[in-house]
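Dock S-adenosyl-L-homocysteine; give full complex structure.
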Amino acid sequence: MRRRLVETIALKGISDKNVLDAMGKVPRHLFMESSFIKFAYKDQAFPIGAGQTISQPYTVAYQTQLLKVVRNAKILEIGTGSGYQAAVLLEMGARVFTIERQQELYVKVQQVLPQMGYHPRFFFGDGYKGLPTYGPYDGIVVTAGAPFIPEDLKNQLAIGGRMVIPVNNGDHQVMTLIIRHDEKEWEKQLCGDFAFVPMLKGTN
Ligand code: SAH
């Protein structure tokens, strides 16, 4: 079933072999709520508790492809959620720092992920602020719909670093790629429409 899911996302346009290989390895069914396990290899988002969702596999693949992850890259994820996106990045050999603002999900993911052999660095907090202590990052991936591009995150990108962030536009989000070229120069590319749960302020 997982192999078929990978074929589906490849047909939808994902071409980065490292992304497809990683998604072929991560056991998505172990990230699902029990009532949804049978749907784990459908290309859809599903509820994970606390009003949040595990992202659609195509969306995870699309964001990861835009990041251009190389082995040992330092990646910051905003919105740990189920931990699925973090697991895909770890499969690609990245060093992953991930922030979650929902206490319930933050506690749960720290039990589940290490049991599968995935060891990102987990942080509880408000992703708008990023994680300056461990920066700068080669990549930053925001997995919730942001009302704007947080300055703090732009400043935590390494020179040459890439940030993939879905930015609100009416009832959907525009996938936005930010590339930092210099101390004071960032390039912005718009990469299509997606649907995300909202990026919220503060912690719960
Ligand atoms: N990457 C997750 C997707 C989870 S959905 C996965 O693979 O399963 C988005 C997540 O972002 C939710 O868990 C939500 O609680 C979290 N989130 C929303 N606003 C946030 C913020 N300001 N800081 C950190 N996490 C946030």
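Observed: The beta strands are 46-49, 52-54, 74-78, 95-100, 121-124, 137-142, 157-169, 172-182, 185-194.
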